[in-house]
Amino acid sequence: MNTVEFANTGVHVSEMCLGTMMFGSRCDAAEADRILGTCLDQGINFIDTAAMYGNGETERILGQIMKGRREKLFLATKVHKGVDRRSILEGIDESLARLQTDYVDLYLIHWPVEGMRPLEIMEALNQVVTQGKARFVGCCNYPAWLLAHSNAIAARNGWAPLVCNQVAYNIIERGVEVEILPQALAEGIAITAYRPLVQGLLTGKYRWGQPLPENSRGQTSAQIITWLSQYGEGVERFIRFAEARSITPVQLAIAWVRHSPAVTSPIVGVSSLSQLQATIDAFAWDLSPEDYETVTAFFDTEVKEEGLQRFPGLRYNFPRLRRNLHLLGM
Ligand SMILES: NC(=O)c1ccc[n+]([C@@H]2O[C@H](COP(=O)([O-])OP(=O)(O)OC[C@H]3O[C@@H](n4cnc5c(N)ncnc54)[C@H](OP(=O)(O)O)[C@@H]3O)[C@@H](O)[C@H]2O)c1
Fold first, then answer.
1. Ligand 1 mean position, distance from CA 119 (Å)
2. 324 lines ligand 1 (CB under 6 A)
3. Which sign, positive or negative, has the C-alpha torsion 14, 15, 21, 23?
4. Catalytic site residue 53?
5. What is the pLDDT of residues 317-327, one digit of tens each?
């Protein structure tokens, strides 16, 4: 497994981040233990969780199975409810108790909410860092302006900045390409991309016009059913393309996300040990620029930016963006 620098922190993490949202629901503690052991054996140390997963149960399971392994891991968790000073300062203590650790490596705001106060939030996050309860802080699902605004506040006050934006990114959900990915590249913000397999839609087990697979999240996720009815034809072409290249759809889906130089680590969810190896193997396969164009065209999911799309190079052409930033001395 490759390692990558996490933002501009000098800390290196595995390129694959393990998503634990299914621990405690579709995956019990014993299976979670085997998954974590296999991850460590194969060089995966970056673990993502959240206080709200299983209403704390996922963190509790991690607390049990991390015993004796904590120092090997780069552990991220997220503020539970609300986005204010109290929820941050109380939330971190509750998470640390469930996780049975003194600190997390990364503490994230889970979702922005209307009426939130960025000054108060950045001050509270900085307090978490100065108390030694988190090494770094970040956010999930922040629009680019809010991340820039929050970090301007942090810079003015000498507080810890947000070093990471965790966002949904896959071949179907591409809104972040407009502002968030270019911002991350320009500012050295880590992008951890969740839902790279579209909740399993791109693993080959969901087929257009066929019954939903037994014992899958599709049985209960309205979102997967909607996506399948909306993009079923693209999903079929995606699966056939993978077959023609003698790779798995999982490999293709992950390679598509990794193709963006703005992505630090895709966060891949697994429900069982048997799913994990396919996921790990996916990180050893790259998509050529030509194949990237072909596969992307299977889905009509490109998001149009404002400004009459007069500056597509700022979004699509990452090498050119990099060159321009270099010329500007950034
Ligand atoms: N910050 C946020 O707001 C946010 C939101 C959502 C998720 N996340 C994070 O991102 C992680 C990943 O998200 P996600 O689980 O929703 O999406 P995902 O990684 O796109 O999909 C994971 C699902 O794909 C299926 N799968 C995985 N490997 C497979 C394989 N080899 N063969 C067949 N099926 C396979 C499993 O579904 P089945 O269980 O049906 O088999 C698994 O639950 C979460 O665990 C969480 O840590 C963060």
1. 33
2. no
3. negative
4. yes
5. 455 555 555 55
